[in-house]
Amino acid sequence: MSEVSSLPWAAAPAAGNAIGLYAKWTPTLDAKIAAALQRLTDASIEHGDGLVQSSSLGVEDMVITDLIARTQLPIAISTLDTGKLHPETLALLPRIQERYGRTVEVFKPVADAVIQFVRKEGDDAMYKSIELRKACCGIRKMEPLGRMLKGRSAWITGLRREQSGARGDVAFDEDDGNGRRKISPIADWTWAEVWAYVEKYDVPYNPLHDQFMPSIGCAPCTRAIAVGEDFRAGRWWWEDSTKECGLHAKS
Ligand code: SF4
């Protein structure tokens, strides 16, 4: 086993409580919630069935799902199951069904492509080079995302400007580089505001957020972060990269 792969996510610091640690209702949050809802409503009217929420099942996306479901907006909710997610992440699917009565459509990679890749490059290929890591993301994320977005004119993401320097200029509504609109209704929310919303509306969330993982991706590629580290420092932590898998790459 390589040195990086011996840093398991389970080696995170003892669990805290994300709500207790981060939630802070700010004077502007009511207005931000209203604005986010307006963006979702406008997008739903403009795009109709062409609109989908592409949820990572991270806390930001859970907030957006809550906004959609509580206001009964007719927006489809989808996610990618890469085959490498934590069980805690997958456990959110039945919780969403139970809580909101909404079925999340799950897109998985092509099984044969995964088998061939793992057979050729190994199950830990992501640690060997950035190229192999991106190839893994291509098979497990990008290809299924393409199927998720096929026929859609717009998608909703939980991107926030605060998440990283690379996301500092995320727009509420922008061209995704492939002819679709990419809508990020809570782009201006802070981490404290996300958790204040979760607390107020009792939004289901991944318990791994209680283990200092603000950004949760595939299990082999996610670790807890230390105080002062960037939100996405725990993603592909062994790389000196922009911490993006291609889903939100700038064109
Ligand atoms: S995040 Fe890691 S395991 Fe998931 S698709 Fe990318 S390289 Fe593969």
UniProtKB/TrEMBL annotation:
Q: Which UniProt keywords apply?
A: Cytoplasm, Iron, Iron-sulfur, Metal-binding, Oxidoreductase
Q: Which residues bind [4Fe-4S] cluster?
A: C136, C137, C218, C221
One MF term in the entry's GO annotations: phosphoadenylyl-sulfate reductase (thioredoxin) activity
Give the pathway: Sulfur metabolism; hydrogen sulfide biosynthesis; sulfite from sulfate
Q: Does the keyword Iron apply?
A: yes
Location of the protein in the cell: Cytoplasm
Reactions catalysed: [thioredoxin]-disulfide + sulfite + AMP + 2 H(+) = adenosine 5'-phosphosulfate + [thioredoxin]-dithiol
Q: Which residues form the active site?
A: C245
As recorded in UniProt, its EC number(s) are 1.8.4.10
Question: Which ranges does the record mark as transmembrane?
Answer: none
Would you identify the family this protein belongs to, as annotated?
Belongs to the PAPS reductase family. CysH subfamily.
Q: What is this protein called?
A: Adenosine 5'-phosphosulfate reductase
- According to its UniProt entry, this protein's organism is Pelomonas aquatica
What are the top taxonomic ranks of the organism? Bacteria, Pseudomonadati, Pseudomonadota, Betaproteobacteria, Burkholderiales
Gene name of this polypeptide: cysH
